[in-house]
Amino acid sequence: MAPNLSQYFLPYQIAWLLDDSPFKIWEKTRRGGMTYVQSYEDVRDAVAGRWDVWFSSADDTAAREYILYCERWSKLFNEAAKSFDEVVLNDEGKPVTVKTITFANGKRINALTSSPSQFRSKGGKVVLDEFAWHNKQDEMWAAAEPVTTWGFPLRIISTHNGMSCKFYKLIQDAAEVGAVVHTTTIYDAVEQGLVDKIYGRKTTAKERITWLESKRKRVGSTVWDQEYCCKPIDESTAFLTFAIIDSCLEHGILRSLEQISAPIFLGMDIGRKRNISVIWCNEIIGTQHVTRIVIPMEKTKYRVQYNTLKTFLNSPMCRRASIDEGGIGAQIAEDAVTDYGSYRVEPVNFNNANKSRMAEAVKTAMEDRNFLIPSDGKVPDLTLVGEATIKDVIRDDFHSLRQVVSPAGNTRFDPVENESLPNSHADFFWAAALAVNAGSVIAPEILGAIRTPEPEAVQTRTGRIDRILDGYDGRFDHTQARLYR
Q1: Which domain holds residue 123?
Q2: pLDDT tens digits, residue range 163-204?
Q3: pTM for this one?
Q4: Strand, coil or helix: what is 37?
């Protein structure tokens, strides 16, 4: 006997279960229990001997979670699974793991990650989970849709991921493709008992509002609208809109290093062949971070990059630097700390947490016009498109950043192509973010502690460490990188 649905599911989940349409699409909020209820539907169908199930997720962890749900429901139906198998198949030269539950009646539930070729010529029900996040959506759709020709059901469940993906287009063409669309926002889910279920008790209206507001603040408005409120974002909508960027443009703020007589704070994003390196220096005036120097370096040797950095660290006006220590930046960051000390130089690991923290700090500053960027200046010798100006390069670079949340719940920042500067992947933005980060901690010891460079150590007989300079004369190499002036 089937269990009482209201004992396990909320109204929007029950509505999905009771809809026996051949083709259903669910545009949903994150973590609303949609995969959970879908696993129940699939076990119910397999136990009833209706058909095999082919479930595809955007990543392996989601497939594993789905199979665990199925195992739980099989016990609830008093239908012990005959076997649990994990098989590795070949998919166009790449291994694909398929997790399979086989029931006593011979019906199977198969869970795998996105693999269009594995769906071809398969009979049975098809479920595409977090479809908007699959890498090959058009191929997946072409492989999965024919199951409906033979009377098998098709289920597509996902949060949104922009307006250019197949998932959004299917919703727009739902009537034409014969799909029934269910829409559940986070507000719908909370109204129908999601927070009560999380807390394990009946919550007050104030508690539910507080819970919603807390989550909205944590993820930001862009992620909130798209992944919790079912509002797909136009691809032209970036982490920083042109309106925000343009509000921070300022004429005549750039300086040469020789012209600077106030403390500056430096950020350096490091690239070599694919990405460019950028040094960005800010002066803090009141609450504003004012851009004073921007130096891009394209396909520049590491030694030249480090000597360029030393030009600034040798200056008493450069009080603190934050340097990208990820990957190829590790050596430059390490050398800078060794030569100038941890008071002056902070290596920054470009993990998701740090990137999110720095990006949000820049966005907040720009929204309050507390970060000014140049609207004029000389364009350096970079591979630019057309008659791009300094303003074009920086505007497009900042605008290229997109904030997304993966199906696993991880926030990441992905750049799209920069129209003015193809070789930049938000490199100007990250250098600027590092400069803001460098100026965020202005302790007395940082303001006062200026050390001379210490490249090499020699141990004397007394045990005292002396430093020997490498002979670098501190001049800036204008043939390898150019100041915006």
Answers
A1: 5-206
A2: 778 899 899 999 988 999 999 999 999 999 999 999 999 999
A3: 0.53
A4: helix
